[in-house]
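Module 6 notes. Inverse folding takes a fixed backbone as the condition and produces residue identities as the prediction. Think of it as a translation problem where the source language is geometry and the target language is the twenty amino acids. Below is one complete input and output pair. Work through it position by position during the lab.
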């Protein structure tokens, strides 16, 4: 199925994103091996993230009170991924500490992941594919943060 968006002077055609999360197909790119709890949270966050608009970064994890996986903060619809990271961190507040971050597209630079790590995020999941992925992986390794790549981009307009 396709989605259409009108733009001045044209039409944008996108294939509808109906891919279900499959953590068994993700690549462990850096940091400690992910726990089952981190993978469960990341799978939930992939569903949330793909519903957000472009440059979406979401932070979530297990609710400190009930233990259920929930969303803590969303940054989306920005012109750059760094600002989306900042907004997601601001919305998550203290809940970002120990949380999982999921991005709808790769990080072109390690500045966004640095914002997430500085806020206490312990797992970062993104599609990978940037020519600077190694910078993000090195940053995660240096801070003991798990980094997973999915190989699937969810970026929407």
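Target side of the pair, the amino acids:
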């Amino acid at each position: 199925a396709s989605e259409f968006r009108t733009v001045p002077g044209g039409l944008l055609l996108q294939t509808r994103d109906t891919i279900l999360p499959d953590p068994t197909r993700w690549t462990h790119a850096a940091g400690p091996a992910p726990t089952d709890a981190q993978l469960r949270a990341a799978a939930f966050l992939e569903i949330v993230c793909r519903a957000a608009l472009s440059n979406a970064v979401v932070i979530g994890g297990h609710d400190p009170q009930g233990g259920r996986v929930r969303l803590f903060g969303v940054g989306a619809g920005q012109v750059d991924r760094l600002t989306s990271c900042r907004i997601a961190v601001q919305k998550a507040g203290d809940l970002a500490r120990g949380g999982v971050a999921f991005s709808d597209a790769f990080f072109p630079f390690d500045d966004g992941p640095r914002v997430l790590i500085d806020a206490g995020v312990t797992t970062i999941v993104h599609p990978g594919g940037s020519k600077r992925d190694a910078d993000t992986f090195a940053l995660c390794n240096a801070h003991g943060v798990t980094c997973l790549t999915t190989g699937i981009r969810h970026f929407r307009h």
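Reference fact for the lab report: The mean pLDDT is 90.
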